[in-house]
Amino acid sequence: MAGVTNAPYRVLCQEIAGGDCLFVSEMITARGFVEGHGQTRKLARFDPAEKRKSIQLYGTHPASLGQAAKILTQEWGVDHIDMNFGCPVRKITSNGGGSAIPARPRLMASLVRAVVRQAGKVPVTIKFRTGIDDETLTYLDAGRVGQEEGCAAVALHARTAAQLYSGEADWTAIATLKAALQIPVLGNGDIFEAFDALRMMRETKCDGVVVGRACLGRPWLFQELRDVFRGIEPAKPPKLGAVAKIALRHADLLVEFFGEHVAMQHMRKYLSWYTKSFHGMAKVRPALQLVNTREELQGLLAALPGELEFPEAGLRVKRCKAGNSQKVSLPDGFLDNRMDDTPLFPDPTGDEGLSGG
Questions:
Q1: In the chain, which segments carry CATH 1.10.1200.80?
Q2: Is 146 exposed, middle or buried (CB count within 10 Å of its CB: 0-12, 13-18, 19+)?
Q3: What digits encode the pLDDT tens for the residues 271-296?
Q4: In CATH, what number does 240-310 get?
Q5: Helix (H, G, I), strand (E, B), or coil: what is residue 80?
Q6: pLDDT surpassing 90 at residue 207
Q7: Buried b (16+ CB within 10 A) or exposed e, 98-130
Q8: Given 13, 21, 87, 151, the catalytic residue
Q9: Is 215 labeled as catalytic in the residue annotation?
Q10: Which CATH architecture has domain 7-229?
Q11: Confidence class of residue 242 from pLDDT cuts 50, 70 and 90?
C-alpha cells in the first residue's frame, strides 16, 4: 500500500508476528527503478532485519518490467516479486494501465512473461481485481494468464475497479477463480479480523489471504492471523497504553530510516489509525496530527489513558476512507480490441500517487 508498507512498517509487523507472514513492499514503478529515480529507489529499499525481501512491481512495458526484475533478483537479492494489476486510480486507467490491463489479456501476458523470465527461480505472483465494472469482468482471464505464464500464485481483490474500496467484496468470485485454476489462489477483500480469513478460506477454498487496509494502525493483526491458522485463540487487542508503545517503536523505526522530520510527517497519518475507535481520542488527535519531533510524540503518547480497552466495535471499522464508486476512465476505444497487446502510454518514472489496488 502506497505510503504505508515501507520498510519500517514491515519490520514492525515482522517483530510482532514473527516470520510466517510475507510482508510486501509498497508499489514500485519499474521504469523509475531501472532509471534510478531517487524516491523510487528509496521506497524499494529493504531493512537488514527483514527475513524475506518481497517487492511489489508496477509497469506497463515488458522491457522495463523485465529489466527491473533482473536487477531486483540478480543484484538486490529479492525473494519474491508481486505484480500489481489492481490500481484503479483515474490517471492510470485513463491511459490503459493498472486495473485496465487485464481487459487486454495478451498485453497482460507479455508483461507477466517478461518478469517471470527474468526472475528465474524467484517466485512471481500477480494481484488483480474482478474487473473494470460489473459488465467487464476480467479476473478469470487474468488468472489464466498468471497460470500459463508461470506465476507461483495469483491474488484476487474481490472488487471491481469501479467499486474502488466501497461496498462488499464478492467472495464468490474468489471461489470461482480457485475452481478454475491449478495454481494457488489468494483472496483479498473485507478481512477485518483474523477469523474473517478462516471464513474466507472455508467458503472459497482459497489457499491463503492478502490483508490490506485492515492492518492500518493494527500491526498486531498478523500475530492474530498466525494464531488462528495454528488453531490458537488470538489474544485480545492491546489496550491503548500498549498501542502507544507500538506507535513509539514504529516512530523510532521511521526515524532511523527517513530521519526525524520525514518520520514525523509519516507518523501523523499512522497516529490517526492507531487511535481510531478509542473513546475520547477526538480531543487528542489534533495535537497528534501536528507532532514534529520524537520527543514531542513520546510526551503525547505517555499522556494517553493507557488502561483504555480496544473497543470491540472498532475491529470492523474501515481503516481508511472507502470512497464512492466511480466510472472507470479508459482510453477511447480501449475495449474495442481487447486482443491488442500494445501498451498505450509510457511507464511512469515515479511512485507518487499510485494506489496498491
A1: 240-310
A2: buried
A3: 999 998 898 998 999 999 999 999 99
A4: 1.10.1200.80
A5: strand
A6: yes
A7: bbbbbbbbebbbbbbbbbbebbeebebbbbbbb
A8: 87
A9: no
A10: Alpha-Beta Barrel (3.20)
A11: very high
